[in-house]
Amino acid sequence: MIRRDFLKSNILGAAGVALAASPIAALTSCSPKKEEVELKLSFQEKTAPGESLNERFDYMENLGIVGFEPGGRNLAARVNEFQQALRGRNIKVSAICAGFDGFILAQDPKTKAEFDSSMRDIIAAAGELGSTGVIMVPAFNRQKPCMPHTLETRAYLCEQMHELGEYALKHNTTVILEPLNRREAHYLRQVADAAAICRDSKSAGVMCMGDFWHMQEETSDYAAFMAAGQYLQHVHVASRGNRKMPGEDGELDNYVEGMRALKQLGYDKYISFECGTNGDRNVTVPAAVELLRAQWKLA
Prior knowledge:
Blueprint: H1 3-20, H2 23-27, E1 41-44, H3 53-63, E2 67-69, H4 79-86, E3 92-93, E4 95-97, H5 109-128, E5 133-136, H6 151-170, E6 175-177, H7 191-201, E7 206-211, H8 221-228, E8 232-237, H9 256-265, E9 271-273, H10 281-298
Parallel strand pairs: 1-2, 1-9, 2-3, 4-5, 5-6, 6-7, 7-8, 8-9
Helix pairs in contact: 6-7, 7-8, 8-9
């Protein structure tokens, strides 16, 4: 066999193996009908207008919002408060948004120990609340000294995530890796990379998410979510120019391709608002909800 034919056969063979192992291949014969997938919207604590938690929950229920994403800071002390406020409501706790001290890739042992302790406290509280998982970022750009971006660091992260994932499973929840754009993080910027770490962590308690705002690092919303496949546990949404309410950046705020992937994946978790607003929340919040529902139908 001449060298050209040898290389061609190997490239085609590798492509076939990759396709067969991909989430796309798995969907060809068992994709749910897209209209069967429910859009489950979630709000963070300050998204809805209202002076108190109960006022915000009333507002959310009137809008048909079914998920609540609290912050992780001091979560253990607020478990009872959230449980009481949610009792009898059609709202469940979605993911928990970070809130831990330190960071997992810290070179300083004290900082790493702070992460280990606080993260486990949040995971335990998340389990009590029936949360889908605790969102975490391996390291922000501002967090230093940080382990270098090497294969050794990746192997270390997978080991650490395995431990966290197994701990989360004991509490009936997960840990959720969030990729960020390059302005906020140098490590873990694409959804496919997060999914690969989930796979290599070898724990069912390690999952990942996509954030439409941060996904400016991606060439395709559709491909990013499809790459996440079975590991996709949560989604954040905001306007795509200034991180405000969806719709506040006009034509930029198109989520249809990403939503199409979510439908094809049979994604049954939450799309949660993580954004501010330049206007009156009583106007911009319901407008954003209406926009997302319209685009979900279009997808």
